[in-house]
Amino acid sequence: MLRQIPPAVAMKLMKISVKHSSLSLKVNIGAEDDEGNAVTQDSNSQHADRQDDEGQDAEGGQLDEGAVKDVHMVPGTQACKNVWKFQDNDFNGDLPPLLGDWKLNVEGRDPVDFFRHLFPADLIDDIVHNTNLYALQKGRENLAVTREEMQIFLGINMVMGYIRYPRARMYWSSEDGLHLRLIANAMSVNRYDQILGYLHFETFKAAADPEEFQSIDEQIIPFTGLLSIKQYMPKKPKPWGVKAWVRAGTSGYMYRFDVYQGSARRDRVIWLGMAGDVVMRFCDDIKHKNHKVFFDNYFCNISLIEALKDCGIYGTGTCRANRLKGANQKLKSERQLKEEGRGACCVVSDNANISVTRWLDSSVATERRGQRSLLCCHPLMLYNQHMGGVDLIDQCVAMYPHRCRNKRWYIGVFFHFLDVTMVNAWRLYLMSGLEKMNLLFFKASVARALINAGSLQQSRRGRPSATPPPVCTGNHWPQLTEVKNANRCHDAACTRKTKYICMQCCVPLCPGCFVNFHAVICRAYYSSVQRKHINASIMTW
């Protein structure tokens, strides 16, 4: 029995799992207690037995993903060769506490307040601006979507998530049993289709401090249309779709995400490979606070655990056998573990306090009917308890998802993250200690609040204003582009081609057609505003 590990707790958890009949090989990076006892973990987690061993890298190529790309080592990482030694497997689970206080940064007590904190008004204004600009570029000058209409539009799509019809137009049907007053009275079906057809955005606040235990995993946003970045993951409930990297807390709150756009559009791989760099990038805002991060064998390798250790982060993850850096030679063989029986394990650690555990367990850890019990080690319970944050998000989103299909893939991505925002707002509501409310009633409350708020602001009493709000504000100036071929002028009365564009509208315009084009837009907007105010006055009086 070796006891050469310093007294200070050096928890660098890592579980390495290799599916091999009933034998599980796992690595616990770093779980040592004050006496230097190594940590063991079990293989009952659904993440532990994940098969991703087709010999492909994260990009879908035929490279061995187990090979770590040590192109440029970060200063402070271990440069010497790993020297492995045996350790005993008693570990009581002492972990360094999280540095700093956890706090909730939300003002308000109603469900809609939590949603608006994550989806603020400036984000809605950004979507409105890009939607109107996109419609203008497509030749629809009089769309003129307002913030109130966008709030109603978002609320309607939330209602469609928990009240499901086969077709979207059925919500506006006049037949008994189909007509949904909450949606039909808030917005016409034609207006809904117009906004959906031109919905556009370019960009997507801190509500709570990061939790102590977090996990990093992949997520699939379902999409079956033609798309170059579409991925196939057979073990996901929806195997085809757009892949996203996600960092989530144990509670199921999503902290960060990044949509994967293929190998040609990713950032340059520096030193840990693509998957390792994803983990390091996602952990750059939780350094030196003793956070515990969990991930599976798709991301995990010993170099990654060493890099996280240098950043003050304790990592836990399943890993593949070809990433053991010599630990496999010190571990007991499969035959020896089988002879010892179920629950047998072997622990080795290196000179960087990284412990590797291989154990044998193919069923439950405790036998019923008063028979003997098997020891379930503390790191295993930590991994099984804290690894499923991303899966918990997927489970909540799948309860009441937005199901309206669209050929534009980014529309599906937008509505997916709108559902994720709703789940995050619900999680914050539960964390606040207010009266408990399930996700269905929370989503319904937010949807009603958005629809009613937009309807009340649109249906104000009184005579409509004679002066419409300004439209053509901003940098509406001609700009000469460097394009090779001239484009058709966007003014309907002009048939010429030009290399000039409007800096604000991003449409080709002749210098002589500039005033006439923007005057038409202002008149169309003025007419639409007048029509809305007159209709609102008729409904009111």
Automatic annotation (TrEMBL):
Q: In this protein, which residues make up the domain named PiggyBac transposable element-derived protein? A: 203-426
Q: Which InterPro entries match?
A: PGBD
The record's region (Disordered) falls at: 34-61
Lineage, uppermost ranks: Eukaryota, Metazoa, Chordata, Craniata, Vertebrata
Q: In its UniProt entry, what is this protein called?
A: PiggyBac transposable element-derived protein domain-containing protein
Q: Name one Pfam family in it.
A: DDE_Tnp_1_7
